[in-house]
């Protein structure tokens, strides 16, 4: 600091102005050390007792380089690196490997763990503390964008749609809310899309009239692997006692057979994870059956079950088979085939000879001579039909 002060004390303001003039309008960093910058600011302000803040303000106002924000400086440094120029031509996305394209699809179309609410909402309120509760009672917390904000990418091309659409339905959790919403969604969702659903959740009150239909449609989803059922066993009992309405009384504690559509829900197979929130009774009733493997010909959405058609047994080698024995089998088969053809040819030749003899005899012999001829033998119907046929 002392060296800079001595340096500047020997210079008047005019000479200092001449030295710093090129840097007043330049975005480049001035060719001065930190000590020299402080000395210049002190001399130009005629204030040897200037505070650090005043010196910093004068430097920022005098030299544009020091007036830049940190973000701008980082950007300029990045741009100054030896980076390739941006390619203005079209990028061949489908030239990438399928594995890389699938990774990109998952990053683009995958939402957070909270999932997506099936509806037309622009933003979905989510919270990990309220995952087991109906969405209607969730407090304002974290908002995630609606699904339509990224689905526009599916309009790029048919090729893009065919590859990316299954990824969207496969990697996301879809909250269907109430039973009516679940039923409406599964009825109107195209089978080509519904077959890719893997994770669904809904709120089950146990009294909905459309539960049986909704669960029947749910059981037709071919690749469904995770199911989150949000139920409140205690809430059902309290609500039934307070309302006094017969349709709202659900006696879960005594028996779960009173729940609407439970048989269709229990019939679902092939799941890997079944979560039944706040109802140990219902979880114990459903989980063992729903985790069983799906039958081979279980019906799927939009397709009829294929019947069991016995397939022809494929030829396989037994313990004594080898290449040598296989060649021997081929030779034996060809020999048998040749013998069969030769036998058939000999038989046909004898038929032709016999037919020619009978035809000649029929032409040159009268009926009486034929009756007295002891050489005449009974003939089969095949011989007679062949003998009486016109010449070819």
Please give a structural write-up.
This protein has 392 residues and is of the alpha/beta class. The chain has 3 domains: 2-70, no CATH class; 96-290, no CATH class; 337-387, no CATH class. Helices cover 48% and strands 7% of the residues. Helix 11 links the parallel strand 5 and strand 6 (226-230). Helix 1 (2-9) crosses helix 3, helix 9 (179-188) crosses helix 11 (211-218) and helix 15 crosses helix 17. It starts with a helix and ends in a 5-residue tail after the last helix. The model is unreliable at 124-128, 238-254, 300-307, 311-320 and 370-379 (pLDDT under 50). This is DUF7730 domain-containing protein.
Q: Biggest β-sheet: count, sense, barrel?
A: 5 strands, parallel
Mean pLDDT: 74
**Rg (CA only):** 46 Å
Q: Structural class from helices and strands? A: alpha/beta
Poorly predicted sequence stretches spanning 5 or more consecutive residues: 124-128, 238-254, 300-307, 311-320, 370-379
> Order of strands side by side in the largest beta sheet?
1-4-5-6-7
Order of helices and strands: HHHHHHEEEHHEHHEHEHHEHHHH
Separate helix tally? 17
For the termini, the CA-CA separation is 129 Å
Total domain units: 3
Shape: elongated
* Number of distinct beta strands: 7
* DSSP helix fraction: 40-55%
Query: Approximately how much beta-strand content do the residues carry?
Result: 5-15%
Biased composition (Acidic residues): 365-375
Organism: Saxophila tyrrhenica
Region (Disordered): 286-314, 359-380
InterPro entries: DUF7730
